TrEMBL record:
This is Pectate lyase superfamily protein domain-containing protein. Belongs to the glycosyl hydrolase 28 family. GO terms for molecular function: polygalacturonase activity. Keywords: Glycosidase, Hydrolase, Signal. Residues 1-22 form the signal peptide. InterPro entries: GH28_Enzymes, Glyco_hydro_28, Pectin_lyas_fold, Pectin_lyase_fold/virulence. It holds the Pfam family Glyco_hydro_28. One of its GO terms (biological process) is carbohydrate metabolic process.
Length: 478
């Protein structure tokens, strides 16, 4: 990548939330200052870097030695990986340690189930930090999960994956190791690194405080289910900036399982995925509040901006600004029907609660999509105060998309036939303000089911205001 450090620090300082203690930056930047920090090389602890022999214990010993120098007032210690390929089983990252995977180094996750001893069920990661402070990963190199070795059958629509469910720890085909995890940790920084080919989710931030992720690339497989980019669960004060994510499943995906999620900012990213580029949920047992997504390009993804609120958590104060979104339809085996914006709250099943969604702002957004916008609340989980401002939406089909089906999955009503395809569908909305929005319909598609600009029933939709809304054909008929 090679971003000038000074530039990165300048940009970071101007971010809305300047989170990581300056001490961490200082020590990262001036890591070689005598007496201020320590660098330990995995080679000195016996790692071969030959890509054939497991280097697990050598790497773990280096991390543990680094960690022994950590006190809450000391600077960080780097574990450096010289050029080479380091095959490893699960590694535990610890407080005060930054993995420095240098430009020609690759950490290769083992493909065997025994490589992932689990302390708790679903605790399978190639690299994981548990309950750590001042901890991170950098160096310009690669962490690779060998995801292709977990494919049972390659399929252009959707790969069939191996399942390690023999232990009973998990069910179905979601039993695969994640790539990198930070769990119950504070002051986390992940930068200047490529995360490649995860077997399952890629970067998992769980119950963390003060996390900065910047200048990273995530390269998953376009056809692999659950190949999420960044999952942020139950965490506060997270900043993601300058990321490139090209993968199969949800690219930036905040979720709530055990507690709320506050203050997440994601800016300056490029995303392509066969699922949602940005998605809140579907795990949504607690609230989401104070999220900002700005300056993001979403390229030919199956869905653009999504919320699948299914479990009773409430969503509020979310901004999406300055985005170019193109969505296209790939295959019904993936959730999504090429919706550029998909905001839904419905109970997952008959025992689930209904969460509400309020105070959303979508501003300065250009859309080229195969389907319209879907805004669907539920009787006790209304969508309120939704704002669209300065948007150009062009609806045009270029795949074999067949119109009419509306996708409520997971759970809820499933796939429902609406016969038409609408520009904007609204259900259970109280307060929708549209200002300066242009909706264009492709004219090479007149015989298809494009026929309803705005679809709603007054019985479930209230307080709608349209100022400067224009709907028309992309090119005037002659
Ligand atoms: C987390 O680490 C701190 C020390 O940094 C320790 O006091 C605490 O017991 C640890 N918590 C858990 C759950 O392991
Ligand atoms: C990223 O890593 C490369 C290779 O190690 C290095 O040359 C460069 O300085 C690093 N950039 C930053 C911003 O740390
Ligand atoms: C593992 O998952 C597969 C695929 O869903 C299923 O057929 C099998 O019964 C599961 N086995 C166990 C032990 O859960
Ligand atoms: C995030 O903040 C909320 C509200 O203050 C708090 O309840 C929650 O425990 C915090 N989460 C973490 C992981 O610190
Ligand atoms: C997170 O960062 C803020 C601002 O620097 C600081 O006040 C807070 O103590 C940090 N939280 C943790 C858990 O380190
Ligand atoms: C979220 O950010 C706001 C505004 O900066 C701050 O007041 C609030 O304490 C933060 N919430 C948490 C849980 O850190
Ligand atoms: C938007 O993000 C791109 C990187 O995707 C960056 O090159 C550009 O400078 C950013 N624009 C602004 C206005 O920050
Ligand atoms: C969106 O496209 C316009 C026109 O090509 C460009 O000026 C703008 O920078 C793009 N914004 C993003 C976030 O990619
Ligand atoms: C969501 O809001 C409703 C109404 O205020 C409240 O009853 C419910 O407890 C909230 N959900 C959560 C997870 O806090
Ligand atoms: C929408 O299109 C108009 C007319 O071409 C242009 O002036 C405006 O900047 C565009 N807005 C966005 C958000 O792309
Ligand atoms: C939206 O775009 C306009 C015109 O480019 C700009 O003045 C405004 O600051 C932008 N709004 C946001 C929230 O970025
Ligand atoms: C659309 O379907 C036709 C007939 O099944 C097929 O020949 C064509 O390749 C398909 N096009 C796309 C873009 O999938």
């Amino acid at each position: 990548m090679g971003f000038p450090l000074l530039l990165i620090r300048t940009i970071l300082l101007t971010l809305l939330f300047s989170l990581i203690q300056s001490r961490s930056y200082t020590s990262s930047a001036n890591i070689k200052l005598p007496g201020d920090s320590l660098i330990l090389s995995v080679a000195d602890f016996g790692a071969t870097g030959d890509g054939i022999n497991y280097d697990t214990s050598a790497i773990q010993s280096t991390i543990d030695a680094c960690n022994r120098h950590y006190t809450s007032s000391s600077s960080i210690c780097r574990v450096t990986f010289p050029s080479g390929t380091y095959l490893t089983a699960k590694l535990h990252l610890r407080s005060g340690v930054v993995l420095d995977v240098t430009e020609n180094a690759v950490i290769l996750g083992g493909p065997r189930m025994e490589d992932y001893p689990a302390e708790t069920s679903l605790d399978w990661y190639v690299v994981v930090a548990n309950n750590a402070t001042d901890v991170g990963i950098t160096g310009g190199g690669v962490i690779d999960g060998q995801g292709s070795k977990f494919v049972v059958r390659f399929d252009e629509k959707k790969n069939v994956m191996v399942s390690w469910n023999q232990t009973g720890a998990c069910l179905g085909d979601e039993c695969r190791p994640r790539l990198v995890g930070f769990v119950d940790s504070r002051s986390v920084e992940i930068w200047n690194i490529t995360l490649r080919e995860p077997a399952y989710w890629c970067l998992d931030i769980v119950r963390c405080e003060n996390t900065s992720v910047h200048d990273i690339s995530i390269l998953g497989d376009f056809n692999t289910p659950n190949n999420d980019g960044i999952d942020i669960e139950d965490s506060n004060n997270t900043v993601i900036t300058r990321c490139h994510i090209d993968t199969g499943d949800d690219a930036i995906c905040p979720k709530t399982y055990t507690g709320p999620l506050y203050n997440l900012t994601a800016t300056d990213c490029w995303i392509r995925t066969k699922s949602s580029a940005i998605k809140l949920g579907s795990a949504s047992w607690y609230d989401f509040k104070g999220l900002v997504f700005d300056n993001i390009t979403i390229f030919e993804s199956h869905r653009g901006l999504g919320m699948q609120i299914r479990d009773g958590g409430n969503v509020s104060d979310i901004t999406f600004s300055n985005m170019n979104i193109s969505t296209r339809y790939y295959d019904p085996s993936w959730w999504g029907r090429a919706e550029p914006i998909y905001i839904t709250s419905c109970p997952r099943d008959s025992s689930a609660k209904e969460g509400s969604i309020s105070n959303l702002l979508f501003v300065n957004i250009t859309i080229n999509s195969e389907n319209g916008v879907f805004l669907s609340g539920s009787p006790n989980g209304l969508l309120s105060n939704i704002n669209f401002k300065n948007m150009n939406i062009t609806l045009r089909r270029w795949s074999n998309y067949s119109a009419g089906l509306v996708d409520y999955r997971p759970g809820c009503q499933g796939l429902v036939n609406h016969s038409a395809t609408s520009g904007i569908i609204m259900e259970h909305v109280n307060g929708f303000r549209v200002e300066n929005v242009d909706l264009k319909w492709s004219d090479d598609d007149l015989n298809s089911a494009w026929n309803v600009p705005l679809e709603f029933r007054p019985s479930t939709v209230n307080n709608v205001s349209f100022l400067g809304f224009n709907s028309g054909l992309l090119h005037e008929l002659v």
